[in-house]
């Protein structure tokens, strides 16, 4: 007879937090229920059906369908069973939660509780260590537990909000407490914050909103543009107080949001990717419009949970202050200069009288403030107003500082006149008084510790956590440790003090940002200093203000200095010498010239001109005039010269021109390259072909996902760099922007102007020798944040004479070198020596994706070989043999009827190539001494019994600290790839277009392999120190340590360093008495610890790689 009351309990948490263990133990736990229980883990079901395997990429659609079928069947069986409690470990996202709720409603059941395993990093690491799955090892190969846990919390935010809003969520921070008599129902239910009543919590609707946002903006992902730099010196004031570069506005203290209006509604989207459907008062906005701005929440609906500083707000209706427009009526605007966007913003039907709007919002009838919606219980009503900008002159900045505003302000924001930047922008500045500078930090709490606050010397990773010990603040202690807190700098104690939790932010400030803010807070740039600097700039520093349209003494393209015959003859001479490559397009008789060498050329000028120069010999026509080759080193330049700097995009140079009425496209070398064909098709699909003019040369960067070099952009298209007219003169930047919008290019490379020394510093991070200082003032550091190197390749500077200089960021150079190591044979080498993370830990994401695919192929081959070896290690069960293994082991392979086909497959897999059988025999001979050890684990097939046992054998290509590794190295050596053609691996489309083209076979000798790695990384400061040792020493150390953990290597280096220092001291300073040598103690390494530490962290925290 079915049990009368049936409860459903949902378990939530990251992989490895203990949900399955909790569910299995709950089946027999007396504290759960007097009735019997049923437990479902879809992960276990997937493993039983072999649908998820460590070395195979899963088909997520098939897995989702399978899990939902299993859930449906479980509910059917549970409805008719005697079980009183159904425990589900099957909810991974909001879609799963909705499916489980639908199944419960179908059978008239009710979800009783959702338990969130709020586990910390240390405990999750321990759980991963205990189960030791290859899936976890793959996560740790290039990442860390911290990164995984952060990503899980970010992706599960909607899921947690869903159960919190239903008042079903309980958090379990210590699952072991359950076994000590604490009832499952004793865990308190989390109180939902008031803003959840307005939040969109429908999975399909959420997906549609973000799909609409990306479609309207024509990007694959979106990040808010954020000011990354501070005005903190006279030099910074001089840089931003220039209307040719910047616009200034008051910084409102609110909640940063996007406002998206599409056909199915209007939405506010926060930086936490939370969506709030809303209604705009007096709405006249067109559809497919995206606005960026600051939301001032009302006191009655959005509540102080979003931003406690606004809890005293007198607004009855929220106000959205718009300061940027990213799209209007489907026209994408974020890619154009800020001045263009401001012009479009001013034409929108949005009120500009902020005071009147604020007054209206304060007097609105509260009963009419919110609108009902079928999607959520209530919908926010907002008033919109434009938060005006001024040209950033000293007078306008002073006006902003001295003007009273009807909303809370905490500084000024200086926006450059260039395209919108996704993420922190070092060229966007803000100024705040010392009382308004705050930092967003993730905190953790521990009690009964002597020091109530933590200073900067106690942590090694600013953005991961700050520990508040002995904290007695009940407001702080009532919050989740994973939340982001807004903190204020305590100058007396020299530490950060938390103020309140920021529910609108999911990501803390980066390490670099926090360190930068610390320096600024330690020496504040006060309002008095700021005002004095403005007055000085106005009176003395800006005698000649650069105009927005800098006039260049353009002498035209150098090809105009030569006759066609002279030009063609000189180029062909270089072609014969092999210094220039010529490609002829047969259909048009066009000839493309591309230089191979320029500096050492016999005719350097002609070689520099050959950068995609297109000629038509029959008509003696110079068809296209591309850039003259330019370099990084430009000597003897006037630092006060006004220059233009444009962003250097990381793609392929494309050249377009009109020939015989058809738009033709070529790269620097050919017209039939993959990039040229892609660009020509893009022009055909997106551009107005009638706007191309004869004799003009259109130079652009080809950005596509199949042509990603180092920087991975969130868009595809052609970025216009310059236009040259029929006379060889470049069009001014403003004209180029107009042509780009008329023709239909995706965007124009963003530009900024300034003196040469200013551009070097603020764009390239390069200090000049003539730095401007102010006498008798404190030597303030510049508040400019270091260049955001990982988002672009660098900058291109154009001088008044038309010549150019490029600034290539060091990160791009080192990463470009690193890309040569994304090679199947190198990845095998680093996997063998357990050094993948040390070399590629900071590599771009698309590099890591390709590395993972290579490791998966190696893992599949490793697993296949392990199966063969395990068969050979088993005790003989028959006198017959299919493979002649007696020579190696003196045993027979089982030929039971059930195993006959499998043994045939094993035999074929060994003998599939010439010499493979002999190599396998050598492998068996090498493993023969370990046969007795392996026989202890012959029953490992019962996976659930032996997984996680410390005496189990490591059957993974990853090194394991607590398991015998005798199978690992011999098998890896056996499957060593002898060429880039790695079995089971096919390069992705992106790598086929870029880095795969340079792959060459690498020697299989260890010293030669490490020599190759060391040569590629020579001079790269980001690589581990051990890779800078002589290769012979590297091989000796790795062999001596048996490729063990990095901590073991660190210990060797510590003791060796102390011995050397002691010897040097005794020889150089014999008469100086020195204290006795104290051995440096390093705590015993926990298993997997070396996967979470980098050499940079060791150097910072343990000082083991300092100079001798």
Automatic annotation (TrEMBL):
InterPro entries according to UniProt: F-box-like_dom_sf, F-box_dom, mRNA_cap_enzyme_adenylation, mRNA_Capping_Enz/RNA_Phosphat, P-loop_NTPase, T4-Rnl1-like_N
Listed SMART domains: FBOX
Q: Which domain of life is it from?
A: Eukaryota
What GO annotations for molecular function exist for this entry? ATP binding; ligase activity; mRNA guanylyltransferase activity
Q: Name one GO biological process term.
A: 7-methylguanosine mRNA capping
PROSITE patterns attached to this UniProt entry = FBOX
Checking PANTHER family in the record gives:
DUAL SPECIFICITY PHOSPHATASE CATALYTIC DOMAIN PROTEIN (AFU_ORTHOLOGUE AFUA_1G03540), MRNA-CAPPING ENZYME
What protein is this chain from? Answer: 2 -5 RNA ligase
Protein source organism: Paramuricea clavata
Recite the lineage of the species: Eukaryota, Metazoa, Cnidaria, Anthozoa, Octocorallia
């Amino acid at each position: 007879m079915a049990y009368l009351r049936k409860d459903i309990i949902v378990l939530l948490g990251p992989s490895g937090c203990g949900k399955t263990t909790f569910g299995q133990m709950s089946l027999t736990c007396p504290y759960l229920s007097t009735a019997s229980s049923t437990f479902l883990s879809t992960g276990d079901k997937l493993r039983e059906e072999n649908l998820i395997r460590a070395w195979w990429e899963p088909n997520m659609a098939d897995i989702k369908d399978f899990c939902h079928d299993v859930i449906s069947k479980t509910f059917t069986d549970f409805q008719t069973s005697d079980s009183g409690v159904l425990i589900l470990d099957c909810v991974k996202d909001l879609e799963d939660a909705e499916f489980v709720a639908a199944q419960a409603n179908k059978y008239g059941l009710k979800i009783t509780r959702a338990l969130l395993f709020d586990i910390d990093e240390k405990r999750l690491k321990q759980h991963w260590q205990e189960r030791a799955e290859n899936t976890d090892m793959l996560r740790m190969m290039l990442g860390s537990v911290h990164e995984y846990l952060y990503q899980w919390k970010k992706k599960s935010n909607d899921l947690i909000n869903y159960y919190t809003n239903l008042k079903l969520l309980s958090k379990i921070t210590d699952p072991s407490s359950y076994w000590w008599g604490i009832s499952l129902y004793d865990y308190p239910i989390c109180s939902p914050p008031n803003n959840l009543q307005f939040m969109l919590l429908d999975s399909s609707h959420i997906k549609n909103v973000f799909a609409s946002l990306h479609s309207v903006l024509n990007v694959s992902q979106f990040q808010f543009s954020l000011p990354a730099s501070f005005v903190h010196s006279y030099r910074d004031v001089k840089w931003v107080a220039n209307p040719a570069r910047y616009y200034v506005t008051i910084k409102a203290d609110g909640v940063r949001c996007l406002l998206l209006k599409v056909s199915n509604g209007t939405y506010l989207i926060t930086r936490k990717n939370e969506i709030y459907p809303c209604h705009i008062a007096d709405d006249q906005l067109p559809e497919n419009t995206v606005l960026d701005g600051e939301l001032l929440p009302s006191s009655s609906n959005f509540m102080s949970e979003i931003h406690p500083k606004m809890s005293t707000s007198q607004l009855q209706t929220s106000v959205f202050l718009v300061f940027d427009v990213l799209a209007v009526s489907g026209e994408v605007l974020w890619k154009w200069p800020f001045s263009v966007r401001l012009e479009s913003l001013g034409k929108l039907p949005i009120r500009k009288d902020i005071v009147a709007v604020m007054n209206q919002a304060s007097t609105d009838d509260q009963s009419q403030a919110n609108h009902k919606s079928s999607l959520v219980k209530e919908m926010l009503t907002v008033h919109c107003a434009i938060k005006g900008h001024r040209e950033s002159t000293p007078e306008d900045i002073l006006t902003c500082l001295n003007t009273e505003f009807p909303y809370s302000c905490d500084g000024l924001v200086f926006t450059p006149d260039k395209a919108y930047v996704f993420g922190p922008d070092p060229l966007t500045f803000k100024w705040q008084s010392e009382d308004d500078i705050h930092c967003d930090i993730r905190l953790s709490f521990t009690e009964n510790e002597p020091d109530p606050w933590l200073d900067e010397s106690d942590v090694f990773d600013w953005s991961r956590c700050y520990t508040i010990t002995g904290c007695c603040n009940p407001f702080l202690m009532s919050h989740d440790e994973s939340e982001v807190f807004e903190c204020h700098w305590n100058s007396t104690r020299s530490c950060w003090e938390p103020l309140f939790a920021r529910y609108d932010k999911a990501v803390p400030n980066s390490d670099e940002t926090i360190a930068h803010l610390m320096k600024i807070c330690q020496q504040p740039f006060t309002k008095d200093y700021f005002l004095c600097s403005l007055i000085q700039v106005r009176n003395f520093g800006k005698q000649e203000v650069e105009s927005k349209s800098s006039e260049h003494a353009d002498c035209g393209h150098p090809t105009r200095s030569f006759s066609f015959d002279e030009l063609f003859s000189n180029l062909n001479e270089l072609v014969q010498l092999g210094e220039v490559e010529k490609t002829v397009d047969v259909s048009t008789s066009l000839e493309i010239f591309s230089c191979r060498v320029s500096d050492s050329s016999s005719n350097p000028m002609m070689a520099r001109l050959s950068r995609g120069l297109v000629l038509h010999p029959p008509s003696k026509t110079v068809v296209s005039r591309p850039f003259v080759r330019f370099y990084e080193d430009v000597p003897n330049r006037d630092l006060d010269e006004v220059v233009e700097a444009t962003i250097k995009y990381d793609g392929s140079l494309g050249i377009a021109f009109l020939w015989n009425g058809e738009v033709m496209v070529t790269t620097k070398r050919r017209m039939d390259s993959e990039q040229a064909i892609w660009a020509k098709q893009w022009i055909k699909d997106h551009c107005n072909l009638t706007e191309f003019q004869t004799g003009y040369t259109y130079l652009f960067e080809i950005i596509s996902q199949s042509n990603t070099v180092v920087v991975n952009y969130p868009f595809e298209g052609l970025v216009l760099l310059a236009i040259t007219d029929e006379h060889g003169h470049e069009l001014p930047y403003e004209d180029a922007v107009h042509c780009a919008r008329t023709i239909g290019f995706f965007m124009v490379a963003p530009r900024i102007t300034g003196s040469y020394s200013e551009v070097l510093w603020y764009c390239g991070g390069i200090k000049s020798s003539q730095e401007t200082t102010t006498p008798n003032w404190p030597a303030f550091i510049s508040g400019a944040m270091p260049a955001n190197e990982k988002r672009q390749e660098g900058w291109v500077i154009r001088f008044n004479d038309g010549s150019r200089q490029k600034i290539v960021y060091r990160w791009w150079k080192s990463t470009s070198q690193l890309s040569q190591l994304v090679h199947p044979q190198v990845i095998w080498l680093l996997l063998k020596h357990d050094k993948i993370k040390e070399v590629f830990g900071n590599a771009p994401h698309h590099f890591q994706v390709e590395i993972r695919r290579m490791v998966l192929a190696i893992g599949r081959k490793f697993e296949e070989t392990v199966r063969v070896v395990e068969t050979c290690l088993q005790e003989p069960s028959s006198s017959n043999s299919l493979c002649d293994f007696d020579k190696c082991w003196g045993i027979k392979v089982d030929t039971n009827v059930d195993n006959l086909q499998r043994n045939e497959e094993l035999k074929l897999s060994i003998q599939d190539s010439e010499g493979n059988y002999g190599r396998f025999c050598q492998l068996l001979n090498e493993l023969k001494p370990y046969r007795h050890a392996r026989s202890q684990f012959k029953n490992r097939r019962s996976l659930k019994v032996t997984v996680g046992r410390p005496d189990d054998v490591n059957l993974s290509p990853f090194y394991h600290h607590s398991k015998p590794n005798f199978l690992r190295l011999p098998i890896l050596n056996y499957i060593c790839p002898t060429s880039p053609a790695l079995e089971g691996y096919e390069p992705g489309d992106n790598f086929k277009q870029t880095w795969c083209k340079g792959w060459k076979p690498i020697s299989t000798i260890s010293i030669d392999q490490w020599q190759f790695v060391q040569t590629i990384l020579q001079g790269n400061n980001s690589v581990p120190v051990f890779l800078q040792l002589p290769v012979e020493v590297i091989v000796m150390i790795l062999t001596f340590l048996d490729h063990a953990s990095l901590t073991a290597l660190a210990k060797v280096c510590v003791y060796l360093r102390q011995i050397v220092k002691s010897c040097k001291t005794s020889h150089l300073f014999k008469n100086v008495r020195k204290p006795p040598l104290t051995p440096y103690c390093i705590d015993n390494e926990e298993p997997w610890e070396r996967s979470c530490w980098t050499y940079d962290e060791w150097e910072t925290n343990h000082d083991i790689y300092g100079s001798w």
